[in-house]
From TrEMBL:
<dbReference type="Pfam" id="PF03481">
    <property type="entry name" value="Sua5_C"/>
</dbReference>
<dbReference type="Pfam" id="PF01300">
    <property type="entry name" value="Sua5_yciO_yrdC"/>
</dbReference>
<keyword id="KW-0963">Cytoplasm</keyword>
<dbReference type="InterPro" id="IPR006070">
    <property type="entry name" value="Sua5-like_dom"/>
</dbReference>
<dbReference type="InterPro" id="IPR005145">
    <property type="entry name" value="Sua5_C"/>
</dbReference>
<keyword id="KW-0067">ATP-binding</keyword>
<keyword id="KW-0548">Nucleotidyltransferase</keyword>
<feature type="binding site">
    <location>
        <position position="69"/>
    </location>
    <ligand>
        <name>L-threonine</name>
    </ligand>
</feature>
<dbReference type="GO" id="GO:0005737">
    <property type="term" value="C:cytoplasm"/>
</dbReference>
<feature type="binding site">
    <location>
        <position position="183"/>
    </location>
    <ligand>
        <name>L-threonine</name>
    </ligand>
</feature>
<feature type="binding site">
    <location>
        <position position="145"/>
    </location>
    <ligand>
        <name>ATP</name>
    </ligand>
</feature>
<dbReference type="GO" id="GO:0005524">
    <property type="term" value="F:ATP binding"/>
</dbReference>
<keyword id="KW-0547">Nucleotide-binding</keyword>
<feature type="domain" description="YrdC-like">
    <location>
        <begin position="15"/>
        <end position="201"/>
    </location>
</feature>
<dbReference type="InterPro" id="IPR050156">
    <property type="entry name" value="TC-AMP_synthase_SUA5"/>
</dbReference>
<feature type="binding site">
    <location>
        <position position="143"/>
    </location>
    <ligand>
        <name>L-threonine</name>
    </ligand>
</feature>
<dbReference type="GO" id="GO:0061710">
    <property type="term" value="F:L-threonylcarbamoyladenylate synthase"/>
</dbReference>
Length: 350
Protein backbone atom coordinates (compact mmCIF):
# COMPACT_ATOMS: atom_id res chain seq x y z
CA UNK A 1 0.00 0.00 0.00
CA UNK A 2 1.25 3.51 -0.81
CA UNK A 3 1.49 5.71 2.29
CA UNK A 4 1.36 9.49 1.86
CA UNK A 5 3.66 11.13 4.44
CA UNK A 6 3.44 14.85 5.30
CA UNK A 7 5.05 16.80 8.13
CA UNK A 8 3.07 19.73 9.50
CA UNK A 9 4.19 22.65 11.61
CA UNK A 10 1.82 22.86 14.56
CA UNK A 11 2.18 26.64 14.78
CA UNK A 12 1.26 27.13 11.15
CA UNK A 13 -1.01 24.23 10.20
CA UNK A 14 -1.70 23.65 6.50
CA UNK A 15 -5.46 23.15 6.59
CA UNK A 16 -5.59 21.83 3.02
CA UNK A 17 -3.61 18.78 4.13
CA UNK A 18 -5.93 18.17 7.09
CA UNK A 19 -9.01 18.54 4.87
CA UNK A 20 -7.57 15.93 2.54
CA UNK A 21 -6.71 13.60 5.45
CA UNK A 22 -10.21 14.18 6.88
CA UNK A 23 -11.66 13.01 3.55
CA UNK A 24 -9.44 9.92 3.79
CA UNK A 25 -10.93 9.14 7.23
CA UNK A 26 -14.49 9.72 6.04
CA UNK A 27 -13.85 7.33 3.13
CA UNK A 28 -12.74 4.45 5.32
CA UNK A 29 -8.96 4.94 5.08
CA UNK A 30 -6.29 4.82 7.79
CA UNK A 31 -4.57 8.05 8.91
CA UNK A 32 -1.78 8.40 11.50
CA UNK A 33 -1.84 11.73 13.37
CA UNK A 34 -0.15 13.40 16.35
CA UNK A 35 -1.84 14.01 19.71
CA UNK A 36 -0.54 15.50 22.98
CA UNK A 37 -0.15 11.97 24.44
CA UNK A 38 1.16 9.66 21.69
CA UNK A 39 0.58 9.33 17.93
CA UNK A 40 -2.76 7.76 16.97
CA UNK A 41 -3.70 5.39 14.13
CA UNK A 42 -7.13 6.66 13.10
CA UNK A 43 -10.16 5.44 11.17
CA UNK A 44 -13.86 6.32 11.01
CA UNK A 45 -15.29 4.96 14.30
CA UNK A 46 -18.72 4.59 12.72
CA UNK A 47 -17.46 2.30 9.94
CA UNK A 48 -16.67 -1.25 11.09
CA UNK A 49 -14.88 -2.12 7.84
CA UNK A 50 -12.54 0.83 8.41
CA UNK A 51 -11.78 0.11 12.07
CA UNK A 52 -11.20 -3.56 11.26
CA UNK A 53 -8.21 -2.38 9.23
CA UNK A 54 -6.71 -0.75 12.35
CA UNK A 55 -6.58 -4.15 14.09
CA UNK A 56 -4.95 -5.67 11.00
CA UNK A 57 -2.34 -2.91 10.52
CA UNK A 58 -1.27 -3.04 14.20
CA UNK A 59 -1.58 -6.78 14.67
CA UNK A 60 -3.90 -5.92 17.58
CA UNK A 61 -6.03 -8.63 19.28
CA UNK A 62 -9.67 -8.30 18.16
CA UNK A 63 -10.96 -8.29 21.75
CA UNK A 64 -9.11 -5.09 22.64
CA UNK A 65 -11.53 -2.15 22.12
CA UNK A 66 -10.50 1.11 20.43
CA UNK A 67 -11.13 4.53 21.94
CA UNK A 68 -12.78 7.27 19.91
CA UNK A 69 -11.73 10.89 19.47
CA UNK A 70 -14.08 13.87 19.16
CA UNK A 71 -13.41 17.57 18.51
CA UNK A 72 -16.31 19.34 20.25
CA UNK A 73 -18.41 19.00 23.38
CA UNK A 74 -21.57 18.76 21.22
CA UNK A 75 -20.23 15.49 19.80
CA UNK A 76 -20.40 13.66 23.14
CA UNK A 77 -24.14 13.03 23.08
CA UNK A 78 -23.92 11.69 19.52
CA UNK A 79 -21.74 8.76 20.61
CA UNK A 80 -22.69 7.89 24.23
CA UNK A 81 -25.76 7.80 26.52
CA UNK A 82 -26.55 7.84 30.27
CA UNK A 83 -23.67 10.20 31.01
CA UNK A 84 -23.09 10.41 34.77
CA UNK A 85 -22.63 13.65 36.72
CA UNK A 86 -19.02 12.68 37.44
CA UNK A 87 -18.37 12.14 33.73
CA UNK A 88 -19.82 15.57 32.87
CA UNK A 89 -17.68 17.21 35.54
CA UNK A 90 -14.53 15.39 34.40
CA UNK A 91 -15.13 16.55 30.80
CA UNK A 92 -15.59 20.15 31.88
CA UNK A 93 -12.49 20.02 34.04
CA UNK A 94 -9.99 18.10 31.85
CA UNK A 95 -11.12 18.23 28.19
CA UNK A 96 -9.63 18.90 25.78
CA UNK A 97 -6.72 16.88 27.15
CA UNK A 98 -5.10 13.54 28.02
CA UNK A 99 -8.21 11.83 29.45
CA UNK A 100 -10.45 9.07 28.07
CA UNK A 101 -13.86 8.39 29.63
CA UNK A 102 -15.56 5.00 29.32
CA UNK A 103 -19.31 5.44 28.91
CA UNK A 104 -22.33 3.59 27.52
CA UNK A 105 -22.04 3.40 23.71
CA UNK A 106 -24.70 4.48 21.20
CA UNK A 107 -25.26 2.29 18.13
CA UNK A 108 -23.67 4.85 15.77
CA UNK A 109 -20.29 3.54 16.96
CA UNK A 110 -19.49 0.25 15.25
CA UNK A 111 -19.31 -2.91 17.37
CA UNK A 112 -15.97 -3.63 15.71
CA UNK A 113 -14.63 -0.39 17.23
CA UNK A 114 -15.79 -1.33 20.75
CA UNK A 115 -14.80 -5.00 20.31
CA UNK A 116 -18.39 -5.99 21.02
CA UNK A 117 -18.61 -4.14 24.37
CA UNK A 118 -21.64 -2.01 25.22
CA UNK A 119 -19.32 0.76 26.46
CA UNK A 120 -16.80 2.89 24.59
CA UNK A 121 -13.88 5.17 25.53
CA UNK A 122 -14.15 8.81 24.39
CA UNK A 123 -11.41 11.44 24.34
CA UNK A 124 -11.21 15.05 23.17
CA UNK A 125 -7.52 15.70 22.46
CA UNK A 126 -6.00 19.16 22.88
CA UNK A 127 -3.50 18.82 20.03
CA UNK A 128 -4.38 21.34 17.29
CA UNK A 129 -3.66 19.00 14.39
CA UNK A 130 -5.72 16.19 15.93
CA UNK A 131 -8.68 18.47 16.66
CA UNK A 132 -8.75 19.93 13.15
CA UNK A 133 -8.43 16.50 11.54
CA UNK A 134 -11.42 15.22 13.54
CA UNK A 135 -13.45 18.30 12.70
CA UNK A 136 -12.70 18.11 8.97
CA UNK A 137 -13.49 14.38 8.86
CA UNK A 138 -17.01 15.09 10.14
CA UNK A 139 -17.03 11.83 12.14
CA UNK A 140 -15.56 10.53 15.38
CA UNK A 141 -12.16 8.88 14.90
CA UNK A 142 -11.24 5.56 16.48
CA UNK A 143 -7.52 5.59 17.27
CA UNK A 144 -5.21 3.41 19.27
CA UNK A 145 -1.53 4.29 19.57
CA UNK A 146 0.20 4.18 16.16
CA UNK A 147 2.67 1.38 16.91
CA UNK A 148 2.77 -2.30 16.06
CA UNK A 149 1.00 -4.15 18.89
CA UNK A 150 3.31 -4.84 21.84
CA UNK A 151 5.89 -2.12 21.03
CA UNK A 152 6.29 1.14 22.97
CA UNK A 153 3.83 3.78 21.70
CA UNK A 154 5.31 6.32 19.25
CA UNK A 155 5.93 9.88 20.41
CA UNK A 156 7.78 10.91 17.26
CA UNK A 157 6.57 10.55 13.66
CA UNK A 158 9.73 8.66 12.62
CA UNK A 159 8.63 5.73 14.81
CA UNK A 160 5.18 5.67 13.16
CA UNK A 161 6.87 5.53 9.77
CA UNK A 162 9.10 2.69 11.00
CA UNK A 163 6.09 0.65 12.17
CA UNK A 164 3.34 1.54 9.71
CA UNK A 165 4.74 2.78 6.37
CA UNK A 166 3.04 0.67 3.69
CA UNK A 167 0.26 -0.42 6.07
CA UNK A 168 -1.71 2.85 6.29
CA UNK A 169 -2.92 5.45 3.78
CA UNK A 170 -1.62 8.65 5.35
CA UNK A 171 0.92 9.64 8.02
CA UNK A 172 0.82 13.19 9.38
CA UNK A 173 3.79 14.36 11.42
CA UNK A 174 3.66 17.16 13.98
CA UNK A 175 5.63 18.20 17.03
CA UNK A 176 6.99 15.71 19.56
CA UNK A 177 4.16 14.62 21.88
CA UNK A 178 3.81 16.82 24.98
CA UNK A 179 3.10 14.05 27.53
CA UNK A 180 4.60 11.00 25.83
CA UNK A 181 2.37 8.52 27.70
CA UNK A 182 -1.16 7.52 26.72
CA UNK A 183 -4.23 9.20 28.23
CA UNK A 184 -5.70 8.41 31.63
CA UNK A 185 -8.58 5.96 31.04
CA UNK A 186 -11.45 6.36 33.52
CA UNK A 187 -14.45 4.03 33.78
CA UNK A 188 -17.46 6.32 34.26
CA UNK A 189 -20.04 3.51 34.02
CA UNK A 190 -19.36 2.78 37.71
CA UNK A 191 -19.71 4.86 40.86
CA UNK A 192 -17.21 5.86 42.20
CA UNK A 193 -15.26 6.19 38.95
CA UNK A 194 -12.30 3.87 38.46
CA UNK A 195 -8.99 4.66 36.74
CA UNK A 196 -8.24 1.76 34.39
CA UNK A 197 -4.99 3.22 33.03
CA UNK A 198 -3.01 5.99 34.79
CA UNK A 199 -1.87 9.02 32.78
CA UNK A 200 -1.26 12.76 32.98
CA UNK A 201 -4.67 13.37 34.57
CA UNK A 202 -3.64 11.96 37.95
CA UNK A 203 -5.66 10.26 40.71
CA UNK A 204 -5.33 13.43 42.81
CA UNK A 205 -6.83 15.49 39.96
CA UNK A 206 -9.70 13.02 39.40
CA UNK A 207 -10.46 13.01 43.15
CA UNK A 208 -11.24 16.74 42.97
CA UNK A 209 -14.30 15.66 40.97
CA UNK A 210 -15.07 12.30 42.63
CA UNK A 211 -13.35 12.02 46.01
CA UNK A 212 -13.82 8.25 46.12
CA UNK A 213 -12.13 7.65 42.73
CA UNK A 214 -9.55 4.86 42.81
CA UNK A 215 -7.06 3.09 40.55
CA UNK A 216 -7.90 -0.45 39.34
CA UNK A 217 -5.73 -2.46 41.80
CA UNK A 218 -4.93 -5.06 39.12
CA UNK A 219 -2.80 -2.74 37.01
CA UNK A 220 0.03 -1.80 39.37
CA UNK A 221 0.72 -5.35 40.50
CA UNK A 222 2.46 -8.23 38.79
CA UNK A 223 -0.18 -10.03 36.67
CA UNK A 224 -1.89 -12.89 38.48
CA UNK A 225 -5.06 -14.79 37.57
CA UNK A 226 -7.09 -13.57 40.57
CA UNK A 227 -6.47 -9.92 39.69
CA UNK A 228 -7.63 -9.22 36.14
CA UNK A 229 -7.31 -5.66 34.77
CA UNK A 230 -10.66 -4.10 33.81
CA UNK A 231 -9.29 -2.51 30.60
CA UNK A 232 -8.74 -5.33 28.10
CA UNK A 233 -5.57 -3.67 26.76
CA UNK A 234 -3.86 -3.64 30.17
CA UNK A 235 -3.58 -7.41 30.25
CA UNK A 236 -1.37 -7.69 27.18
CA UNK A 237 2.42 -7.66 27.10
CA UNK A 238 3.18 -4.08 26.24
CA UNK A 239 5.82 -1.43 25.80
CA UNK A 240 8.47 -4.10 25.47
CA UNK A 241 11.73 -3.32 23.66
CA UNK A 242 13.75 -6.23 22.24
CA UNK A 243 16.17 -6.36 25.18
CA UNK A 244 14.91 -7.31 28.65
CA UNK A 245 14.39 -4.36 31.02
CA UNK A 246 15.27 -4.54 34.73
CA UNK A 247 14.24 -1.87 37.22
CA UNK A 248 16.48 -1.07 40.16
CA UNK A 249 14.35 0.51 42.89
CA UNK A 250 15.40 2.17 46.14
CA UNK A 251 17.60 4.90 47.55
CA UNK A 252 19.35 6.69 44.62
CA UNK A 253 22.90 6.20 45.93
CA UNK A 254 22.33 2.47 46.40
CA UNK A 255 20.63 2.30 42.99
CA UNK A 256 23.74 3.74 41.33
CA UNK A 257 26.02 1.29 43.17
CA UNK A 258 23.83 -1.67 42.26
CA UNK A 259 23.60 -0.68 38.61
CA UNK A 260 27.39 -0.28 38.31
CA UNK A 261 27.87 -3.67 39.96
CA UNK A 262 25.39 -5.29 37.55
CA UNK A 263 27.07 -3.60 34.56
CA UNK A 264 30.41 -5.11 35.60
CA UNK A 265 28.89 -8.61 35.69
CA UNK A 266 27.29 -8.17 32.28
CA UNK A 267 30.55 -6.87 30.80
CA UNK A 268 32.33 -9.97 32.13
CA UNK A 269 29.76 -11.97 30.13
CA UNK A 270 30.46 -9.85 27.01
CA UNK A 271 27.01 -8.21 27.18
CA UNK A 272 26.21 -4.69 25.97
CA UNK A 273 24.27 -2.73 28.61
CA UNK A 274 21.90 0.25 28.29
CA UNK A 275 21.10 2.41 31.32
CA UNK A 276 18.00 4.59 31.65
CA UNK A 277 19.31 7.33 33.91
CA UNK A 278 18.35 10.89 34.81
CA UNK A 279 20.15 14.24 34.49
CA UNK A 280 21.01 14.01 38.19
CA UNK A 281 22.63 10.55 37.98
CA UNK A 282 23.90 10.03 34.43
CA UNK A 283 27.54 10.95 35.15
CA UNK A 284 27.87 8.20 37.77
CA UNK A 285 27.72 5.27 35.36
CA UNK A 286 30.54 3.64 33.41
CA UNK A 287 31.01 1.02 30.67
CA UNK A 288 27.43 1.23 29.38
CA UNK A 289 25.31 3.24 26.95
CA UNK A 290 23.69 5.83 29.21
CA UNK A 291 20.60 7.78 28.14
CA UNK A 292 19.03 10.35 30.47
CA UNK A 293 15.23 10.37 30.47
CA UNK A 294 15.24 13.93 31.80
CA UNK A 295 15.38 15.66 35.14
CA UNK A 296 13.96 14.20 38.35
CA UNK A 297 12.85 17.78 39.13
CA UNK A 298 10.58 17.73 36.06
CA UNK A 299 8.67 14.42 36.10
CA UNK A 300 6.95 15.38 32.81
CA UNK A 301 10.32 15.29 31.00
CA UNK A 302 10.72 11.67 32.13
CA UNK A 303 7.30 10.69 30.73
CA UNK A 304 7.95 12.55 27.49
CA UNK A 305 11.16 10.61 26.76
CA UNK A 306 10.40 7.15 28.18
CA UNK A 307 9.03 5.35 25.09
CA UNK A 308 11.50 6.98 22.70
CA UNK A 309 14.39 5.94 24.95
CA UNK A 310 13.21 2.31 25.02
CA UNK A 311 13.17 2.38 21.23
CA UNK A 312 16.61 4.07 21.07
CA UNK A 313 18.06 1.18 23.05
CA UNK A 314 16.61 -1.23 20.48
CA UNK A 315 18.47 0.70 17.79
CA UNK A 316 21.74 0.47 19.77
CA UNK A 317 21.33 -3.31 19.98
CA UNK A 318 21.90 -3.58 23.74
CA UNK A 319 21.50 -6.99 25.42
CA UNK A 320 19.87 -5.64 28.57
CA UNK A 321 18.40 -2.33 29.79
CA UNK A 322 18.78 -1.27 33.43
CA UNK A 323 16.45 1.49 34.63
CA UNK A 324 16.22 3.68 37.68
CA UNK A 325 12.78 3.87 39.35
CA UNK A 326 10.54 6.85 40.12
CA UNK A 327 8.23 7.76 43.00
CA UNK A 328 4.72 6.43 42.46
CA UNK A 329 2.90 9.69 43.00
CA UNK A 330 1.20 12.09 40.59
CA UNK A 331 2.35 11.50 37.00
CA UNK A 332 4.96 9.10 38.45
CA UNK A 333 2.19 6.48 38.80
CA UNK A 334 1.75 6.42 35.01
CA UNK A 335 5.51 6.35 34.42
CA UNK A 336 6.00 3.38 36.78
CA UNK A 337 2.98 1.58 35.30
CA UNK A 338 4.55 1.72 31.79
CA UNK A 339 8.05 0.97 33.06
CA UNK A 340 6.87 -2.03 35.13
CA UNK A 341 5.08 -3.43 32.09
CA UNK A 342 8.08 -2.94 29.82
CA UNK A 343 10.16 -4.82 32.41
CA UNK A 344 7.56 -7.56 32.90
CA UNK A 345 7.72 -6.52 36.60
CA UNK A 346 11.41 -7.52 36.85
CA UNK A 347 12.23 -5.26 39.80
CA UNK A 348 15.34 -5.42 41.98
CA UNK A 349 14.89 -3.68 45.33
CA UNK A 350 18.01 -2.15 46.90
O1 LIG B 1 -3.61 8.70 24.65
C1 LIG B 1 -4.30 7.81 24.17
O2 LIG B 1 -5.28 7.34 24.76
C2 LIG B 1 -3.92 7.29 22.77
C3 LIG B 1 -4.09 8.44 21.78
C4 LIG B 1 -3.86 8.01 20.35
O3 LIG B 1 -5.35 9.03 21.94
N1 LIG B 1 -4.71 6.15 22.43
C5 LIG B 1 -4.54 4.95 23.04
O4 LIG B 1 -5.39 3.93 22.62
O5 LIG B 1 -3.68 4.75 23.87
P1 LIG B 1 -5.15 2.40 22.92
O6 LIG B 1 -6.16 1.68 22.12
O7 LIG B 1 -3.72 2.06 22.69
O8 LIG B 1 -5.53 2.25 24.44
C6 LIG B 1 -6.88 2.32 24.90
C7 LIG B 1 -7.03 1.58 26.20
C8 LIG B 1 -6.77 0.08 26.06
O9 LIG B 1 -6.09 -0.38 27.21
C9 LIG B 1 -8.20 -0.50 25.98
O10 LIG B 1 -8.26 -1.85 26.39
C10 LIG B 1 -8.94 0.42 26.93
O11 LIG B 1 -8.39 1.70 26.68
N2 LIG B 1 -10.39 0.48 26.60
C11 LIG B 1 -10.94 0.92 25.44
N3 LIG B 1 -12.29 0.81 25.47
C12 LIG B 1 -12.61 0.28 26.67
C13 LIG B 1 -13.85 -0.10 27.30
N4 LIG B 1 -15.02 0.06 26.69
N5 LIG B 1 -13.77 -0.61 28.55
C14 LIG B 1 -12.58 -0.77 29.18
N6 LIG B 1 -11.39 -0.44 28.63
C15 LIG B 1 -11.39 0.07 27.39
MG1 LIG C 1 -1.55 1.21 22.73
Amino acid sequence: MYTKIVNLNEDDVDEQILKEAGEFIKNGKLVVFPTETVYGLGANAEDGEATKKIFEAKGRPQDNPLIIHISDFEDVDKVVRNISDSARKLMREFWPGPMTLIMEKKSIISDVTSAGLTSVGVRMPSDKIARKLIKFSGVSIAAPSANLSGKPSPTDVERCIEDLNGKVDYIIGGNKCEYGLESTVIDCTVNPVCILRPGAITLEMVRKVDEKAYIDPAIMAKPEPSLKPKAPGMKYKHYAPKAPVKIIDGDLKKTIEKINEMVQNYIDDNKKVGIMATDETKNNYRNAIVISLGSRKDIYSIGRNLFETLRDFDDCGVDVILSEAFDEEGFGVAIMNRLNKSAGFDIINV
